[in-house]
Amino acid sequence: MVKAEGVHKSFGRLEVLKGVSLEVQPGEVVCMIGASGSGKSTFLRCINHLERIDAGRLWVDGRLVGYRQSGDKIYELRDADVCRERSQIGMVFQRFNLFGHMTALENVIEAPIRVRKIAKRDAVAQGRSLLQQVGLGDKIDNYPAQLSGGQQQRVAIARALAMKPKLMLFDEPTSALDPELVGEVLDVMKGLAHDFQTTMVVVTHEMGFAREAADRVLMMDDGQIIEEGTPEHFFTAPREERTRQFLSAIL
Amino acid sequence: MASDTAEPVRPDEIKAIPVRRPGRWVAAAIILYLSAAIVKSVATNPRFQWGVIRHYFTSSRVLQGLITTLELTVLCMAIGIAIGIVLAVMRLSPNPLVSGASWLYIWFFRGVPVLVQILFWGFFAALYPRLSLGIPLGPQFVHFSANSAITPFVAGMLALGLNEGAYMAEIVRAGFISVDEGQTEAAQSLGMTRLQTMRRIVLPQAMRVIVPPTGNETISMLKTTSLVSVIAVTDLLYSVELIYAVNYRTIPLLIVASIWYLIVTTVLSFGQYYLERYFGRGAARELPPTPLQRLRRSLYFRHGY
Predict the structure, then answer these.
(1) Neighbour count for residue A241 (Cβ, 10 Å)
(2) Of A63, A232, B127, B160, which one's alpha carbon is 20 to 30 angstroms from that of A14?
(3) Which residue of B has its CA nearest to A169?
């Protein structure tokens, strides 16, 4: 579903990604862990082409992200094509980023109506059932400011799911939440992983979630993936010293 | 005598004697006394000529002038807002030539006094006696004289509208900047185009920041339109000027104009309040009450005790 080969990305003189390679199979749940500044969020944003990569190759579902290759030439994609690619990838942000001037339901139906061009009635029906699914059937007419952080994040997940994405990206979805609200968001995500076999790439520090839902865990450090394995591997016998340090700091 | 079946006793409600605040009463008395003195002096001074004011207040020439003033205000603000949005989008463009052009426009129109701009447009025919419609630097299709196309009204409208555009551009830009970048990112991640993101996500939320200064600009514009009297547009001010040039009742007629300006300003302020309330939805947990709701609530609390 996702394939990366030697992805590099710099912001000015600061090199954030120094050759990231990985492959994510359809239906797989991959957790990325690592200290802040290690490049995991940046890599996630590259998958959605919110950031442009400088070197290497990145494919989603067999298509180059943000570019088109013909022969040995690479062309930049037109804006409309970039939008179409993005619309098939759901993204959930650390700070929720719900549209503040829209109710929960309006947030969920906006993109299906404007981007997918589906009829409003169908979008509303789908939006209601999605909000029901994330446990917010009674909050559909609330504005984001009237919802708790956990509720906002669940609306954000419903909003991403409304586009029926092939792939879901989660950028530290629980790190802006109060501790007692983390569980409700993780439960929704576990549901996606188990019941719907959604392909997910999750940047998180929730090792509990990684253990329960992830097929694979990647440890990033200084712009590179330094260790990868099953969640069990990380809990029992992490190989790298850097990984051990990191895990003992967060567990 | 505590028994375990008894309900917890609610302590007596506090019935405190309020603190006496003599200072407030003194201040109120002074203000009432001074207001009464001003009202008496204004009402009884025959030189205000209230009869004349009443006579001209609804005279057809004054009302005609008022309508011209209102037309100018609405048209100029419409031009200003339209130009302002375009300039603000241009200013934030990644293309340096586009954002530079916007900067230049704002620099020029903010830099020249608006009265001078009105005069320039009034004398536009001296610069370009003949106007034509066609392809710039290419063939022209229609020709007409500048004097017939740019009437004083059009000159005033162009001057004030183009000038307003420069100010509105900065207001709109401030609004755009105030919207969190996460909103744009979320919209992009859903596959919305730049234009959709601007129109559906950024602009509606920017409006919360844009509306209050725009209301301010509208009220300011209402009064600035009086400057067009210098190029003989018969707005509210010029209409009363024409009347008192004949009958020399200068003060009462200026008061007529002032009262009309105050009335329209009041109406505009109300409109702004409701507009702010509309665009504030979602920003606060609860919408602020309308003046009517506030009145009802305060009455309820007085008596509901």
Answers:
(1) 9
(2) A63
(3) B189
Residues 6 or more apart whose Cβ sits within 8 Å of residue A55: A6, A7, A8
Per DSSP, the three-state class of A68 is strand
Q: Which of A207, A209, A9 is nearest to A219 (CA)?
A: A207
Chain B residues touching A166 at Cβ < 8 A: none
Residue pLDDT, tens place only, B74-91: 999 999 999 999 999 899
Q: How confident is the model at residue B300 (pLDDT cuts 50, 70, 90)?
A: low
Q: Which of B72, B81, B82 is nearest to B261 (CA)?
A: B72
- Three-state secondary structure along B137-148? CCCEEEEEEHHH
Q: Which two tokens stand for residue B41?
A: 């002096």
Cβ neighbours, 10 Å, residue B59: 15
The answer to whether the beta carbons of residues B32 and B226 sit under 8 Å apart is no
Contact yes or no for B191/A111 (Cβ under 8 A) = yes
CB contact under 8 A, B189 and A91: yes
Interface ipTM = 0.90
Interchain contact, B283 vs A145, CB within 8 Å: yes
Characterize B194-218 residue by residue with b for buried, 16 or more Cβ atoms within 10 angstroms of its Cβ, and e for exposed.
eebbbebbbbbbbbbbbbebbbebb
pLDDT tens digit sequence for A135-145: 999 999 999 99
CA distance A44 to A42: 5
Contact (CB, 8 A) for B258 and B266: no
Structure-block tokens of residue A56:
């290497």
Position B284 pLDDT exceeds 70: no
